[in-house]
Amino acid sequence: SQQGEEDPQALSIQEGENATMNCSYKTSINNLQWYRQNSGRGLVHLILIRSNEREKHSGRLRVTLDTSKKSSSLLITASRAADTASYFCATGSYGQNFVFGPGTRLSVLP
Amino acid sequence: DAGVIQSPRHEVTEMGQEVTLRCKPISGHNSLFWYRQTMMRGLELLIYFNNNVPIDDSGMPEDRFSAKMPNASFSTLKIQPSEPRDSAVYFCASSSSSGREETQYFGPGTRLLVL
Asked: What is the tens place of the pLDDT at every residue in B30-44?
């Protein structure tokens, strides 16, 4: 099965700064997805990028995908305290379960 | 839409007791997933249903765990007998796609504590 591995494990920034987290994976994929989990809650889907796409935007989120390096990055611009959460990537391939990485814990300080 | 509904939200039980977790997927979704989340092991997929049929149960830890989906709007995950190491947060997720690689929508989870 596929596995995404997020980096860094933890990130602490000031409100208003940008936050960048990365995801690496091992084999070919159909898509890569980013999810957010607030403390004590379920995961919330943020964005899906397909293997034939290089960049995707959604509000303050920007995701890039480099299939040659088997990596993706999630950029959150102008971060807010409400962005404090764990962020997970998951890689999807047809017929295979996707496996979540350990996540990046983001803390946005007011 | 109400989203994925799970019950109970919290469960505290004693070792050896039977535990039943319930899930109502989003209406119209035909794929359902059960996950377990712990600090040590992260998020693990336990079982995946498509059109009410179990497709992949390779993640089910052992025979004490069983899952059913009698219809498109209801699924259960049962642990019998429960053990302290089963303590975790159990999530149910559903998807409108038959492909397990597409977007999943998660419920709020059931926090299980086995004493």
From this structure: 999 999 999 888 899
